[in-house]
Design goal:
Keywords: DNA-binding. This protein is α+β, with helices and mostly antiparallel strands. The chain is about 65% helix and about 15% strand. The longest helix is centred in the C-terminal third of the chain and has 33 residues.
Amino acid sequence: MLPYKELAQLDKLVHEPARLSVLTALSACTLAEFLFLQDLTGLTKGNLSSHLAKLEKAGLVFIDKHFVRKKIPQTTIRITSDGRAAVERHWRQLESIHRAIQQQGAHNDKRSSTV
């Protein structure tokens, strides 16, 4: 059986490309500044803010807004343990699905070459 149905059942909150990019970047560091994430992902401020709000609402990231030297606004984002688990699970699922599809394809190639 091919795992194509599993692709349709992936966590859509995590699977959305911009959010997957953000979560993957955050999983590689302790915290990131908003502007760094914006530059890294290539998202606009509004788009990144929107995606971060969805991730925060789901408990996958923590957003801290504060001022540096009482004047300069700074927003930092941390991935939560739930967020880290979700993105790691997502990548494992994608790898497993990809491996299964490749194996099925190799199996079909062997079958068609013997005919």
